[in-house]
Amino acid sequence: MRLGPLQLESNLFLSPLAGYTNLPFRLVVREIGGVGLCTTDLVNARSLLEKRAKAFKLVETRPADSPLAVQLFGSVPEEMRDAALVVEARGAAAIDINMGCPVRKVCNVGGGSAMMTALDQTAALVKGMVAAVKIPVTAKMRLGWDDDNLTAPDLARALEDVGVAAIFVHGRTREQGFGGTVNLAGIRQVVAAVKTLPVIGNGDVVTPQAARKMLDETGCAGVSIGRGAFYDPWIFKRTAEFVRTGDLPPEPSFSERVRVLGRHFDLMMEVFGEELGCRMFRKIAPWYAKRFGPCHEFNKHVVHVTTREQFQVVLENYLGWRRQFLDEHGELLPRFQPAPLVASFMRESSAPPLPHIPVPKGPVEVW
Ligand SMILES: Cc1cc2nc3c(=O)[nH]c(=O)nc-3n(C[C@H](O)[C@H](O)[C@H](O)COP(=O)(O)O)c2cc1C
Question: Which domain holds residue 140?
């Protein structure tokens, strides 16, 4: 898979999840493998130009975190162009433009999904960015504002004409939020609308089989995974192998899940320091635990962790407590296995909806 001049290891992408796709998480996903390109959380173009510490923390990276796209949002063409130059100078491999954010605060100033309602203006803004930088510029959008305004095919065509390197399409409308079903036919219409531009499908891919279905039914060039990566950081590795060989690799073992949980924790300490890192990790650890089987004893204590040491104690105690649910070989008894995740577009009516990842308030209050 190529993105303009950039050769990627796979056609699988990590979608931006504000508050979650920070440097430690990206490193975790990359160390496991299978991902072609990761993207930062959305970054306010103006905040970057004003050199705000929070904006610079969001674009913090290191050599192992490569290739990396920085996602910008904003609606003032000069600010977006200048922010693109800042991002390029800091070594990003690509720039992604947020055109899908449904949050009122972003749309009210003409950013996020409001960009999908003003095609000429948006194309002009993007043209200015493409002309200013040498690295590829991509755009991330929803299918449109609502079902009566499915503007993604027209917008994709307009952006292809001004030189974007790829389009990411979340197969829902702004009005849908995260409800209902991802519309694969809608993504296919975007693929059909462009000439040679790679269209990357996105939405609800939580298993390798769902990624395969999205590729097959939409004709998209790649798949971008957000929440699915947070539920399961192994999804890229397993999907890459499944798509390549047709054989579904086994799920990671419990000890591998615990190892990666610990690695993620260590990286959070390195990047955010012990106090903030522990506080942030309290909302991350329970996501790993969802695949552990019985986990309330872990969740109850991990949400109070304030030091590295406490984290180790909580983990050790949990490992002891969990033994009661194991068979003589140390495997979880079948009745305690967690329920499998199912994408909206692969779902039988009885399947449970995907677990909700809360949109963070505070530093990234726009998502
Ligand atoms: C908590 C959260 C934060 C998000 N932050 C961003 C963001 O910063 N930029 C963006 O373009 N999309 C953002 N999204 C949308 C995702 O990138 C993605 O398009 C959407 O979640 C559907 O894909 P998924 O089902 O694979 O998660 C966010 C979604 C969630 C749930």
Answer: 2-245
Q: Which of 101, 107, 220, 278 is catalytic?
A: 101
| Ligand 1 in reach of 42 Cβ (< 6 A) | yes
Q: How many domains does the chain have?
A: 2
The per-residue pLDDT for 266 is 98
From the alpha carbon of 42, which atom of ligand 1 is closest? 8
Outline where the chain has alpha helix (H). Answer: 23-32, 45-49, 53-58, 77-89, 104-107, 119-132, 152-161, 184-193, 208-218, 227-231, 235-245, 254-272, 274-289, 296-302, 308-322
Atom of ligand 1 nearest to the CA of 15: 17
**Confidence bin at 113 (pLDDT 50/70/90):** low
- Under 8 Å between Cβ of 16 and 40: yes
Q: Whose CA is nearest to atom 6 of ligand 1?
A: 17
295 is catalytic: no
Q: Are residues 211 and 139 in the same domain?
A: yes
